[in-house]
Design goal:
Elements lengths: L1 E5 L2 E2 L16 E4 L8 E7 L8 E7 L18 H10 L26 E12 L2 E6 L2 E3 L6 H6 L7 E2 L12 E3 L1 E5 L3 E9 L5 E5 L4 E8 L17 E2 L1 E4 L3 E9 L3 E7 L2 H5 L3 E6 L31
Parallel strand pairs: 6-12, 8-10, 9-11, 11-19
Antiparallel strand pairs: 1-2, 1-3, 4-5, 6-7, 12-17, 13-16, 13-18, 14-15, 14-17, 18-19
């Protein structure tokens, strides 16, 4: 398989016999049919999961006289192997860009980050019930949509700053967690997975550069190994067991955005929060107002204009 695209980014066309695709991700590959004329298995199997599951398809040459048979070989099982493969996904800087500078005047590796946000997932019991958290906060959905509360400035729905910028090490608790952010800044996010499961994180409304990942504990010294030249742009990033992943993101989209685990059971039981990007200008250049015919609910019922 020749990798040619990752979530809209043209990549270096490297060849792989096995490719890991994590929750919420997509890749495009080219398969060259240049083997002897017979049938071949195409196998899809689970990785880093408690139960091994496999499904197969058959690549059939029209002139094949030999059916495929025999056991399905298992894929690689080492975390280090998968991390190294993920690092090998790189942007093709000679494709889809102006010349001679493939990225124009904007290059993520030359921009200073103004804030580092470290996010750690955890599991535990709250009130004797299973819950999951980010930086010790297990998200509780309010009685109305977050964006309506933000747009109409309805108090009591959430509190800005109700989730910390870094793991607290404290006990897990319930809250409608919202993290505030300035507009038109450049942030570093570090997702820290201190558990023995595979994690996958998605950020609504944004794409970001995956600049680094490794096993163990993240420290500022890890920045020396970041890819600041040709990282792939994604909207979902995997975090391996007992590992971390780092991204750079330009905060250029005003709104109330959900950051969540793509592990649905964990997301439903609290492993998510909202990231509020605010512009004091409140211009339609930055964010369109809610349409007057939008369906409103809860405490937003009957409101059609932003309060003065």
């Amino acid at each position: 398989m020749t990798l040619v695209e990752v979530e809209g980014t043209h990549t270096l066309q490297s060849s792989y016999s096995s490719i890991d695709v994590h929750l919420g991700q997509s890749v495009s590959v080219l398969v060259t049919a240049d083997q002897s004329a017979k049938d071949y298995y195409i196998a899809v199997s689970t990785r880093f999961a408690p139960e091994y599951l496999v499904s197969t398809g058959v690549l059939h040459y029209s002139s094949s006289q030999q059916q495929v048979s025999g056991p399905i070989p298992g894929g690689p099982t080492e975390v280090v192997w998968s991390i190294n493969q993920a690092r090998s996904f790189r942007t093709n800087l000679t494709a889809s860009g102006p010349r001679p500078n493939p990225q124009g005047s904007y290059h993520y590796g030359l921009i200073n980050t103004t804030r580092t946000i470290r996010l750690a997932n955890s599991a535990g019991l709250v009130n004797r019930k299973q819950r999951y958290a980010v930086n010790s906060v297990s998200f509780v959905a309010p009685d109305m949509p977050m964006k309506l509360a933000d747009f109409f400035q309805i108090s009591g729905v959430y509190k800005l700053g109700s989730i910390a910028d870094a793991p607290t090490g404290g006990d897990m608790y319930l809250d409608t967690s919202v993290m505030p952010s300035d507009y038109r800044v450049f942030y570093e996010f570090v997702f820290e997975n201190r558990e023995d499961i595979m994690q996958s994180w998605h950020i609504d409304g944004y794409a970001f550069w995956v600049v680094g990942m490794d096993g163990g504990t993240w420290t500022p010294a890890a920045r020396d190994g970041y890819n600041l030249r040709d990282a792939v742009v994604r909207s979902t990033v995997q975090v391996y067991p007992r590992s971390w992943s780092a991204i750079y993101m330009a905060i250029d989209n005003v709104g109330m955005w959900n950051i969540r685990s793509e592990f649905w059971a964990r997301q439903y039981l609290g492993q998510q929060f909202y990231f509020r990007v605010y512009s004091p200008v409140e211009s339609i250049r930055d964010e369109y107002p809610i349409p007057k015919n939008a369906l409103l609910c809860g405490r937003a019922t009957g409101r059609h204009t932003r309060p003065l």
